[in-house]
Amino acid sequence: MRRIPIAKQGLPYILALSVLLILLFFLGWTFLTLLALILTVLVINFFRDPEREIPQVPHAVLAPADGKIVFVGPTFEDRFLSKETLKISIFMSIFNVHVNRIPLSGEVESIHYEKGTFFAANLDKASLDNEHNAVVLRTPEGEKIVFVQIAGLIARRIDCWLQPGDSVQQGERFGMIRFGSRLDVFVPADSRPAVSKGQRVKAGESIICYHQPIK
Q: Quick one: which of 55, 116, 149, 187 has the most CB atoms within 10 Å?
């Protein structure tokens, strides 16, 4: 049976708007009916969850989110890894698919949620100051990577469906952020970038870098 390409988290919003749309239509309020129709279409578009072709490429790290690359470069990750890393940041507008996917297979070591402010997600300070949820993952080779869901100016809800100890596969769904947000990925410093600033990527499909396994 083929799955409906809509994230189940969006169904309550879509149902409520659909009921409102029908009610306004039968009341004959044309202008409000058109507004409700536009809003319903936008919400359906936001919660779409298409299938993706997961590339089987050795040592590839996949994009955890749809959107635009806003940062690629070396960064000292001092909260969870305490070492130099390669950081890649992806900004998601409200028009992107917002279902997030696992960048690399492994085991979830820990999850860290922090409340925060709501700066625009494309700003660098959003990584530290905004509400965020960090996932620390250990690969089969024993390396650690971190990927962080960051709420944006409009986003007010981070969903993460993982638990510490979960074994996860590259490309599988793990959560979403509602209404505009950002994903930061921290991988070993000797990883080779496969994207550049301004490039657009797709979650679970686009390769963002290649990591070097521990020898």
A: 187
